[in-house]
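User: Sequence in, structure out. Go.
Assistant: Echoing your sequence, followed by the structure tokens.
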Amino acid sequence: MKALIVCTNHNAYPTKSGKTGLWLSELTHFYDELARHRIQMDLVSPLGGKVPIDERSLDLKDETNRKYYEDPAFMQKLENTLKPSDIKPAEYRLIYFTGGHGTMWDFPDNQELQEITRQIYENYGMVSAVCHGLSGLLNVKLSDGTPLIKDKYLTGFSNIEEKLVSFVSEVPFYLEDKLQENGANYTKSMIPFVQYIEVDERLVTGQNPNSARKVGRKVLEEMFDK
């Protein structure tokens, strides 16, 4: 079985000079869980090629971040991600959308990624996402036209978390609000930034960066232990 991991190519904020992009641990923690089970993983991004890393997420005191950041083969994958047109959805049993603020700009309207997600899901595969990566699920429609997230229980980066990281003026929308507007049953932890996931059949989502490893574990449990 293979897993497909989606990362952003977008690295700029409208006015802040700092760069955004992938939130590193949302990739490495999930990747680490699947790697332990020797699952083959491909990385894809909306444009293919290089994935920028949000400079605020480069925490190399985090052992998992350090392990992969210092692994040339892994970093090579991150520099040379596949394009959506390279992907054959039938080869994958799982798709996972990583987060980082960059995803809010290049995930929601990417029809190729939406089509890949639909095919994996309708082929009885699993769909998973963490934090801002949920923006990649906002506009996915199933073959009958129903939004994938309609009436599904899920989580993602909350309005209060967005306010606490002080990026409200920069983001194109509030993710929590958008998920609810699009018909999802949004839930969240009472306390911001603590590990929290939501599971609804073949949809597994995590609220914030601290939830990525738990999403990985849950996905493995759902696929192999049932």
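User: And one key feature?
Assistant: The longest strand covers residues 2-6.
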